């Protein structure tokens, strides 16, 4: 039997008595009940003497289970694979440098880093990569591995934009500034270290966007400034320790901070559709660094 009861100064109660029986009500009672229901506010509560049976969860509990051992092993394997590849590349690069240095000390080869021939020789690697991007960008040769690793959307035409501009900037810095000018070093550090890390950090932690550019985040811009500054200082110290540059470090730190600030502001502007970051960031860094250092 279902029983509805109301009192003037208490909340309405709704009782279900088992086993359920048929509900009978007269017209006058029905009218009275409706009027009373409308006289109470919408916040009135219903008290169930017998709670309804629990409904099954729409999402099974198994979906909230912790990751399996196989998933953890796969994730750890990916991290170890990337770390191993990075270590091998660094080891190979240093072995090559030490090998050339050893051959030079033994006078087996002649090394002249200030000559124009050395600058041109240094641009061979980025030039080969430039030609490779052009060939695959126009789909003259298919290479799914290159497209998946370099592009964001899997479109071969992307190779002719950001990645190609990146390689061209490497060639320009090698030919124009070489290793005696901090301008080229800082420009490459801002493009590779600053802008590269900003993209990674912005994608993962960039929930709070910049007001004048919704596609950029505060996290990405802050990481752009910090890592661009740190990589620039580290590279300048490296070349200074090798004897290629003589720097006034207190003044150099201020100048690099200024270049980092300008490059970060340019990278945050909503001009990506007009000019790519791989062009705007290094060009802004070149101009600011040249005006700051003077060479």
From TrEMBL:
InterPro entries tied to this protein: Phytol/farnesol_kinase (IPR039606)
GO MF term list: phytol kinase activity
Annotated metabolic or biological route of this protein: Cofactor biosynthesis; tocopherol biosynthesis
Reactions it catalyzes: phytol + CTP = phytyl phosphate + CDP + H(+)
Top-level taxon in the UniProt lineage: Eukaryota
UniProt-annotated location(s): Plastid, Chloroplast membrane
Membrane topology: Multi-pass membrane protein
Membrane-crossing segments per the record: 83-103, 159-178, 222-240
Cellular compartments per GO CC: chloroplast membrane
Keywords: Chloroplast, Kinase, Membrane, Plastid, Transferase, Transit peptide, Transmembrane, Transmembrane helix
E.C. numbers: 2.7.1.182
BP GO terms, sorted: vitamin E biosynthetic process
Family: Belongs to the polyprenol kinase family.
Name of the protein this chain belongs to: phytol kinase
Organism: Ziziphus jujuba
Taxonomic path: Eukaryota, Viridiplantae, Streptophyta, Embryophyta, Tracheophyta
Designated gene of the protein: LOC107413077
């Amino acid at each position: 039997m279902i029983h509805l009861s109301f009192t003037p100064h208490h909340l309405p109660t709704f009782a279900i008595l088992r086993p359920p029986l048929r509900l009978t009500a007269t017209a006058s009672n029905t009218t009275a009940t409706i009027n009373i229901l409308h006289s109470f506010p919408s916040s009135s509560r219903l008290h169930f003497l017998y709670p309804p049976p629990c409904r099954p969860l729409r999402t099974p509990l198994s979906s909230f289970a912790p990751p399996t051992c196989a998933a953890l092993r796969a994730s750890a394997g990916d991290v170890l694979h990337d770390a191993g590849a990075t270590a091998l590349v660094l080891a190979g690069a240093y072995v090559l440098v030490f090998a050339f240095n050893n051959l030079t000390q033994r006078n087996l080869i002649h090394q002249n880093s200030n000559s124009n021939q050395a600058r041109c020789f240094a641009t061979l690697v980025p030039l080969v990569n430039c030609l490779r991007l052009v060939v695959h960008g126009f789909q003259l040769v298919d290479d799914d591995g290159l497209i998946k690793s370099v592009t964001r959307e899997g479109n071969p035409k992307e190779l002719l934009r950001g990645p190609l501009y990146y390689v061209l900037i490497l060639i320009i810095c090698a030919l124009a500034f070489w290793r005696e000018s901090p301008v080229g070093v800082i420009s490459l550090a801002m493009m590779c270290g600053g802008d590269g890390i900003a993209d990674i950090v912005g994608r993962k932690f960039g929930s709070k966007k910049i007001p004048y550019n919704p596609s950029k985040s505060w996290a990405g811009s802050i990481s752009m400034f910090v890592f661009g500054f740190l990589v620039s200082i580290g590279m300048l110290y490296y070349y200074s320790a090798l004897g290629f540059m003589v720097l006034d470090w207190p003044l150099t730190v201020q100048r690099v901070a200024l270049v980092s600030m300008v490059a970060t502001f340019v990278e945050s502007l909503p001009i990506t559709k007009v000019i790519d970051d791989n062009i705007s960031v290094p060009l802004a860094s070149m101009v600011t660094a040249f005006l700051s250092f003077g060479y």
